[in-house]
Amino acid sequence: MFILENLKAKQIYKIFINKDVIEPTSKLKYQQKYPEYTFEWEEIYSIPYKATIDTKHREFQWKILHRILYGNSSLYKMQLVDSPLCIFCKTENETLEHLFFRCKLISNFWMAIENSLKTEQILLSRLLEIEVLVGITKEIKYKNLINFLIIIAKRFIYFCRYKKNNACKQFRFILEKSKTYRIY
Ligand SMILES: [Zn+2]
Hints:
The structure is a single chain. This protein is mostly helical and 184 residues long. Helices cover 59% and strands 0% of the residues. The chain has helices at 9-18, 25-33, 41-51, 55-65, 72-77, 96-102, 104-119, 129-134, 143-163, 165-176. It is globular, with a radius of gyration of 20 Å. The model has no long low-confidence stretch (mean pLDDT 86). Zinc ion binds next to loops.
């Protein structure tokens, strides 16, 4: 144990910089779930700051990156809800992956967004599930804009999920109109 008063500033500095950096457990979880994907973590962690100046958007994306935004699957394990099932389809467990990408209702929603962006020549290829979750790191045109749109789309999904019935109706209405739906 160190006695702080006996240490010089240089020694204190050395102790801090030599401290082991604890990697977030979420990194490992993402890598296990997507073993084929090359994660550029520095870039991924910078996305919330590059894509938006809104602190709520940043905080929301940060929670997804650290996997501390919970769906029914986790809440059920914590005994906080009665069912692990997805609020939208009610057939699959509501994991982060399911809620934000795999759910049938949600995939229609992404398709509508992708089609709008393709029409405007902003997006040239389909979004990958992992890109929807952590953001796009590859060098493409309009990267910050697309990452921004991904974040607000996920916030909208989560808002609908959180508000349950009322917002779900609104969400379903948008999906029904998705053929003509434009996001701006
Ligand atoms: Zn679902």
